[in-house]
Structures are given as structure tokens and as C-alpha cells.
Design a protein that fits this description.
With about 270 residues, the protein is an alpha/beta fold. About 30% of the residues lie in helices and about 20% in strands. The chain is globular and about 50 Å long.
Length: about 270
């Protein structure tokens, strides 16, 4: 049985690889949070410029940037940042880690939201490289942002460390542990997905997700499931604990995740 996702926090930062990533898996949850007065901001590693086969990357990046901003607004998110890593070629490494650490220090969130960093998706297929790279870097950046000696900038706008991340949630993962009741926010999530209309149209006939959404209740918890050809599901979250070591938080056992939740125990 899935546990209810903790909501005793006020500020979240969602970090994903592409425009549309959050819309397929977590936008109804975001709509719930913003409706309840929580602050949510988006950081997108790329502009999705390689995602539409029939469109030149420069034009695709411009169009998808605007569609992502519209998607965010549909669920109450006004702040969307783009890091301009190359779509389809995002690499786990120092630059990505540094960019995410600086984003966390800027926004100072209590909760991070990202996508499944594992080899396989919730549907059992292979997970794409960009998702794996960004998800893994988010997990590392949650810890690194609190270490003042890591990823310093030699400039006046250098940011103070942020050690306040309490929970890391990964969406679209095979084995959830937590879920959220989004029954009242399904339509907002669908509206956010529909705002990605150029990208969805570019997927071709038979690849466009249905706008119908099923909500299955498990006591207080519910998970949403969009209907699309792969029968993938999205909605719940998985959690693993942190333990303290030498004054730093180190991940405990990391399982597989849909939102997968990594919680820090204080």
C-alpha cells in the first residue's frame, strides 16, 4: 500500500530534462500544491530542441520554450528557467552538477521533484539518457548544495550553501512507495499536457496521449493514469531514507522510483 506523500513544506523546485517531462507525470500534483499555497518553480535542463523530427532545432527550441511556460502556468507555476544543455546529449558531469547546485542555492527549496534516474521506465522499457543523467545529478546536487566548498563561484553573486532540502521526489518510476490524491486536479494536469500541442502533434498519429484520465483511490491516496499506447502510468512517489554521516546527509538505500521520494530524516 502506498503511503501518503508528506506535504508539510512550503517551497519546491522541479528539475527535469525536457519540456513535457513534468506534464506527463507530475503536473496534477503540482496543481494540487500551488492550489494549496505552496511555491513551485521549474528548472528545465534543455529546451527540447531535438524533440520534433519535422522541425529545425532552433525553431523547435523556441516553440517548446513557450509551450513549457504555458504548461507551467496551467498548474499555477510562474517561474520557469532553462539551463540550455543540449537536448538528447545531456551528460552527467561537473557542469550539470554545478548548474543544479546553483539552481538549488538560488531557489532554496525544501522539496525537489525530478524524473526516474534508472535504466528502465515504469512501463519496463529503456529510460532515455537525458532523464537518467538529470535525475542522478538532482540527487547529488541535493547534497552538494549544502557544502560551501563545492561548486563555488568566484564572483560577487556567489550563493550561500543551502542544506534545507528535506525530500527528493522522482516521477515515472517502476515501484512507487508514496502517492498523492490528485482527483480534484486531473483537469489542470491535462490542460498542462495539452499546452505542449506542437510537440504532441509531432509525435504522429497513434502517439498522442488520450485526454482521459483514470483516478484510482486507495484510502486517502490516489494515483492518476493517463491512457496512451504504452499503457504507462504516472502519479505515485517512492521514498528512501537518508542517514546522517559526519554532519552530511548521505542517501540510504535507493530503490526504484514513480514519483520516488527520497526523504531526509532530521
Amino acid at each position: 500500500m502506498l503511503l501518503p506523500l508528506p506535504e508539510d513544506w512550503g517551497r519546491a523546485l522541479a528539475i527535469v530534462a525536457h519540456p513535457d517531462d513534468l506534464e506527463y507525470c507530475a503536473s496534477s500534483a503540482v496543481a494540487r500544491w500551488t492550489a494549496h499555497g505552496k511555491s513551485v518553480a521549474y528548472v528545465i535542463a534543455t529546451r527540447g530542441e531535438a524533440g520534433i523530427d519535422s522541425m529545425d532545432p532552433a525553431e523547435a527550441g523556441r516553440v517548446r520554450t513557450q509551450e513549457q511556460i504555458a504548461s507551467a502556468r496551467a498548474v499555477g507555476v510562474e517561474l520557469v528557467e532553462f539551463l540550455d544543455h543540449p537536448d538528447g546529449e545531456v551528460e552527467y558531469g561537473r557542469k550539470l552538477r554545478a548548474d543544479l547546485v546553483h539552481a538549488i542555492r538560488r531557489h532554496r527549496p525544501e522539496v525537489l521533484v525530478s524524473l526516474n534516474p534508472h535504466l528502465n521506465t515504469a512501463g519496463g522499457g529503456p529510460n532515455m539518457a537525458d532523464h537518467r543523467a538529470v535525475g542522478t545529478a538532482v540527487l547529488d546536487a541535493a547534497r552538494d548544495a549544502g557544502n560551501r566548498w563545492l561548486f563555488r563561484r568566484s564572483s560577487p553573486d556567489d550563493l550561500e550553501p543551502w542544506d534545507g532540502v528535506r525530500m527528493v521526489c522522482f516521477a515515472a518510476s517502476p515501484s512507487p512507495t508514496h502517492s498523492l490524491d490528485v482527483a480534484e486536479f486531473v483537469e489542470a494536469g491535462i490542460a498542462a499536457l495539452k499546452a505542449q500541442h506542437t510537440y504532441i502533434a509531432g509525435l504522429g498519429e497513434g502517439s498522442i496521449p488520450s485526454t482521459t484520465c483514470a483516478t484510482r483511490c486507495r484510502g486517502r491516496a490516489a494515483e492518476q493514469a493517463y491512457s496512451w499506447p504504452s499503457n504507462s502510468r504516472c502519479g505515485p512517489f517512492r521514498a528512501a531514507g537518508h542517514r546522517w554521516a559526519g554532519g552530511r546527509r548521505w542517501p540510504g538505500s535507493l530503490g526504484q522510483e514513480v514519483p520516488h521520494v527520497l526523504t531526509q530524516r532530521r
